[in-house]
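Weekly structure sync, notes
Attendees: PL (lead), two postdocs, one rotation student
Agenda item 3: pending single-chain targets
PL asked that the sequence for the first pending target be pasted directly into the notes so everyone works from the same version. It is reproduced below exactly as submitted, 222 residues in total.
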Amino acid sequence: MYWTLTCEVLFYLWAAVLFAVFGLRRFAEGAALVLLAGQSVLLAADFIFPDLVPLQLNMLLLVGYAHLFAAGVLFAQVYSHGACTRTLALLGASFAVALGMAQDTGEAAILTLIYLIVAACAWRLPAARLLGWRPLSWIGLVSYSVYLLHNNIGITLLSLLPPGLPGAVYLASAAGVLGGIVLLSWGVFTWVEKPSQSLARRLGAWFQEPRPADVPDGLQRE
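Predicted structure, written out during the meeting:
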């Protein structure tokens, strides 16, 4: 249902640990290297000794998704600071793992397309400007709310439909529920997410402001 939230929270916890180890300047490459190396070791162990590593440990260590999280921090590094040879090598390793773990050629093609699109954004290529099209930007803004609401509301409503109805009724119902979920998601973004983000930015700015005791005496206002 919302299993990806568990993976997301686990990554944030591991990212905090890795940030404490590597610091800001070396975080992206250091975290990516640890994620990819740990994933490779556990995948090799599972290949040589099947069922040796418990499923819960695999999930805790993000074995199925570490390469994608590594790609995320590396692409963010490229977008903010550019790429060096190490970054490119780690991105190549991440992409190789993604292709190796793909179930079929169709999934491999989709993953390749995703990597190319994100790379275009990270390197600020002209083609990435197409993603700035207003409807696509709007969909991106409400997509997380859609993800949170689609199951508990959307699927619950659709499950109330009795069996045996014409297919057109199910399609129309699904379209109506999807439209309602999108509108509700827009409301959540407008009245919950945006105010929360604004509050977080204000709090962050407040904590970053130097306190009077931190300001040199010669710079303090009379």
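Discussion points:
- Helices lie at 3-22, 27-48, 55-60, 66-81, 85-101, 105-122, 134-158, 167-208.
- The chain has a mean pLDDT of 88.
Action: rotation student to compare against the earlier draft before next sync.
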